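Anyone opening a protein record will find just a pair of labelled lines. The record below illustrates this layout.
***
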Amino acid sequence: MRDPARIDTVLVTLRALWETSPDLRLGQLIVIAAAPREPVPEIFHIEDDVLLENLEQHLRRAQPSRP
């Protein structure tokens, strides 16, 4: 299992980097940092509000149902 402590480290670093270029969308920042060999336009061009909605949908599905 991966170390859950990495999450805070990654998020802190991501925040610090994003704050240096706040006009970038999150997808752009991730693609630039990952430097993939092939373009990833679906991630690079996704708007933050669309990404956030998708993340929220995944979170709702991942959380256990409450009676």
Summary: The radius of gyration is 14 Å. The chain has a mean pLDDT of 95. The first helix runs from residue 6 to 20.
